[in-house]
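#struct-help
A.M.: can someone run this one for me? Single chain, 237 residues.
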Amino acid sequence: MRVLVIEDEPLLAQTLRRGLELEGFVVQVADTGTDGLWWAIEDSFDAIVLDIMLPGLSGYEVLRRLRAEDVTTPVLMLTAKDGDYDQVDALDLGADDYLTKPFSFPVLFARLRALLRRRAPQQPAILSAGDLRLDPARRAVYRGDTPVALTPREFGLLECLLRHKGTVLTKTDILRNVWDAHYDGPENVVEVYVGYLRRKIDAPFDRGSIETLRGVGYRLIDPGAGEGDDETGSTPA
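D.P.: on it. Structure tokens below:
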């Protein structure tokens, strides 16, 4: 899940980044309304956290221009103001939700998850492949009835693979969705984390749910869907 945070207070912006990353989100931060508008139009995000008081363009103007460009990404507005008319203005311009500073981070995370559920009602509440289940709301993973403890990065990788179940994802796809747009380290970090994930969700249960397609990428398979090896040369481990 990719979130754009448009916030000019450096401490709050970095706190939001760290908190959201710990919740498994991939975060892009912009510190002006102008930069935030550019990112929101030129890139794709699952949600936008938008402050109202911004240099360059106000949050109201960013939101107005986004909706004028038919950008329908859910927007959660943040502001230090506390007044009914401010909330009305934001909602009338097309905001999907509104939080007044100071706010509770658990509430922010819950509001974002609610926006994402409304954004994609076709997505199941529980992601699954065979007896492997991931609950995004509770940050929980199970193989059968056995809970599996994952780090935030491992959880994000598994969620990405499950949301694209049956689809081959390149390392670039995975880096973009699980790391961030500015990651400039080696691509083999994906191989490392796929290995970590296999050791936790597959090896102890004698499963092989993550296929490697040589020279292409990775695919998470559903044992009940009949995927198998193909001409790309796939291997389960």
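A.M.: thanks! Residues 2-119 form a domain with the Rossmann fold fold (CATH 3.40.50.2300).
D.P.: also worth noting: The longest strand covers residues 2-6.
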